[in-house]
TrEMBL record:
Topology in membrane: Single-pass membrane protein
TM ranges: 12-29
Domain Trichome birefringence-like C-terminal: start-end pairs: 167-449
Localization, UniProt: Membrane
InterPro entries cross-referenced by the UniProt entry: TBL, TBL_C, TBL_N
Residue ranges of domain Trichome birefringence-like N-terminal in the record: 111-165
Name of the protein in its database record: Trichome birefringence-like N-terminal domain-containing protein
Higher taxonomy: Eukaryota, Viridiplantae, Streptophyta, Embryophyta, Tracheophyta
């Protein structure tokens, strides 16, 4: 865990560099994209009465606290936060008041069928579950058909577990499960894609004047009056408090996090009835800086991404262990979403990526370099200790097969592309996110099985 990052990087320098540059920009664009949705929506609804949306309390962007005073809470991180100096990680860990229990294996014994082990079946009668153009909340980052994707095969695949069948998606039944409740997705842009998928899956049966979407903010809320329910998304890419918690502006020189505080986010998510967390890709961009809450002089410690993620997961696990009553709250964790940047991995002697891929990988058990095994093992360890309180939506293997499911060049890009880029589509392909309708809908079908 304490391995220095540059050592790790030299093993795959080119891939790492391409990946880094790419992800930073795509994740950024994603945010503007949501604003775009709201603009489009406002535009479409021109002349119609828009429901008034309750103001959501936001965290302060530039708090006036004085962190040299020992009795005050530490300064809230924002995008202007900097480290006064940086030292190597000391090995320090937060001391939690409620220890997370040792591993309990209750979940394993209840499982009768592994829903995550199976294969993709082409089925154009049951899928897609909705049409791209019918969903007013669709994101321009994920609307691949609208952005010119000619092959629509990616929409027609159904997930078939080996030893059982998935319950068919039933939107009425899903709404009944959500009646009077708050369902909240918490995480990064992959989780936001799953949230948009869920909203698209659910919205069609609610009359337009009985539903609404709040403006883009750290917390964005889809509300269905008809069911007195909300489906919400909280932007929290590192789970813990960080300088990247602004959903629009987070293209930053350094990533600073508080390894001992989830409070900024947990104050928003603690009232939700059903919580769906994810976190992964942001930890793959290189080292992160730790600013402990007790550190008053702005001295940061630098740690590699995996180490940083483990500290963040610990802080989150502590929140779950101390605050979640499984009879009152359901908590899910969605595992790593794979990327497909290196087509050599599934097609030797080909140096492309997900661009122009039209069918899933059929090789059972296929695992590419986009899904980091040490991260998976760390997540396994953290989640095994929470198994009575957290259900795992293990999407990694099934999404690994879906090299065809990414937007590649068929999405909105916010920065203009150079002629050189345009002449080589693989150079700017998005092989991170997932077209909708598509793979993320199936993640939600899995969630539906567990509710
Ligand atoms: C912060 O608080 C300390 C101790 O009360 C005080 O000496 C210092 O002047 C304050 N700094 C600012 C910027 O207010
Ligand atoms: C489904 O796919 C089959 C085989 O490709 C095709 O013959 C059929 O027309 C398709 N049906 C629909 C509804 O798209
Ligand atoms: C999508 O649109 C097509 C053509 O308009 C229609 O036949 C089909 O039923 C729609 N599918 C869904 C899931 O709404
Ligand atoms: C969907 O669920 C509702 C409510 O549980 C039920 O009445 C209906 O029959 C279901 N529809 C299908 C197609 O199974
Ligand atoms: C709506 O749901 C909230 C919980 O999310 C509950 O407190 C409230 O009483 C419900 N309102 C109605 C009219 O059912
Ligand atoms: C998810 O599934 C993979 C196999 O596909 C397995 O190695 C891993 O342990 C699982 N993770 C969790 C948290 O269940």
């Amino acid at each position: 865990m304490m391995q220095r990052c540059h050592k790790k990087k030299t093993q795959v320098p080119l891939i790492a560099l391409i990946f880094f540059v790419f992800i930073v920009s795509t994740i950024l664009y994603n945010e503007r994209n949501i604003q775009q949705i709201h603009q489009d929506q406002a535009h479409n609804d021109d002349g119609h009465h828009q429901p008034i949306i309750k103001q959501i309390p936001l965290y302060k962007l530039s708090p006036p606290q004085n962190n040299t005073h020992p009795n005050r809470s530490p300064v809230v991180l924002d995008r202007y936060s900097t480290c006064k100096s940086t030292v190597e990680y000391s090995g320090r860990r937060a001391e939690w008041d409620v220890p997370v229990p040792e591993s309990d294996n209750r979940r394993a014994s209840l499982e009768t069928c592994d829903l995550f082990s199976g294969k993709w079946v082409f089925d154009n009668t049951s899928h897609p579950l909705y049409n791209e153009s019918d969903c007013p909340y669709m994101s321009d980052q994920l609307a691949c058909h609208k952005h010119g994707r000619p092959d629509l095969g990616y929409q027609f695949w159904r997930w078939q577990p080996h030893n059982c069948n998935l319950k068919r998606w039933n939107v009425t039944e899903m709404w009944e499960k959500l009646r009077g409740k708050r369902l909240m997705f918490v995480g990064d842009s992959l989780n936001r894609g799953q949230w948009i998928s869920m909203v698209c899956l659910l919205q069609s049966v609610v009359p337009a004047d009985k539903r609404s979407m709040s403006p883009n903010a750290p917390l964005t809320i889809f509300r269905a009056e008809l069911y007195n329910a909300t489906v919400e998304f909280l932007w929290a890419p590192l789970i813990v408090e960080s300088n990247s918690d602004d959903p629009v502006n987070h293209r930053l020189e350094e990533r600073i996090m508080r390894p001992d505080s989830v409070l900024r986010h947990s104050s928003q998510w603690e009232h939700a009835d059903i919580l769906v967390f994810n976190s992964y890709l942001w930890w793959r961009q290189g080292p992160v800086k730790l600013l402990w809450s007790t550190e008053e002089n702005g001295v940061c410690e630098e740690i590699n991404g995996l180490g940083g993620m483990e500290l963040a997961m610990d802080a989150w696990a502590n929140w779950v262990a101390s605050k979640v009553d499984p009879l009152k709250k359901r908590v899910f964790f969605v595992t790593m979403s794979p990327t497909h940047f290196t087509s050599q991995e599934w097609k030797p002697e080909n140096d492309g990526n997900c661009y122009n891929e039209k069918t899933p990988i059929e090789d059972e058990g296929y695992w590419g370099s986009g899904s980091d095994l040490p991260t998976m093992r760390m997540i396994d360890r953290v989640l095994s200790r929470l198994s009575s309180k957290v259900s795992v939506v293990n999407i990694t293997q099934l999404s690994e097969y879906r090299k065809d499911g990414h937007p590649s060049i068929y999405r909105k890009f916010w920065e203009s592309l150079s002629p050189k880029q345009l002449s080589d589509p693989t150079s700017y392909s998005d092989c991170i996110h997932w077209c909708l309708p598509g793979v993320s809908d199936v993640w939600n079908e899995l969630l539906f099985q567990f509710l």
